[in-house]
């Protein structure tokens, strides 16, 4: 496989109870730009996503059933070296996915190689679990501020925070600026051939 083909592949890691918009928006937006996006999960199966919404009168978001979507491959089948970038959506999935040793190896490989990583909402729980946030500036779902600080990161409550090749956002309302900034990183580090 040529290095040009490898630079066009992006890995999106997720699982059941991921936020529908946080999976499907970057998946479709990156494909629109010409990237080959693969979805990896604990196993190759149909994933069941959720919809998190913000409703007046609730102290936190609400959760409803969302879309179903197939995973292309299992974490155990991923060769991180074949991918130019990583996308980590939020929802409840990162809370349990951070315990998966295969996925932790994958995430660590991207950070060790300084490849672009986009994370949103609760996705930083996964990067925190591999020790990748120490000394970094990040944003996340605001309720994770203490988790980000405990992981050694400087938390900023902003639509997007870019720290080198790491691009983070709070939640799906921030999608346009999140993907705009991530694409700017990709155009430099992993342009479409």
TrEMBL record:
Residues covered by the DJ-1/PfpI domain: 9-183
SUPFAM superfamilies recorded: Class I glutamine amidotransferase-like (SSF52317)
Family assignment from sequence similarity: Belongs to the peptidase C56 family.
NCBIfam families to which the protein is assigned, alphabetical: PfpI
Name of this chain's protein: DJ-1/PfpI family protein
CDD domains: GATase1_PfpI_1 (cd03169)
Organism: Streptomyces botrytidirepellens
PANTHER family noted in UniProt: DJ-1 PROTEIN, DJ-1_THIJ_PFPI FAMILY PROTEIN
A Pfam short name: DJ-1_PfpI
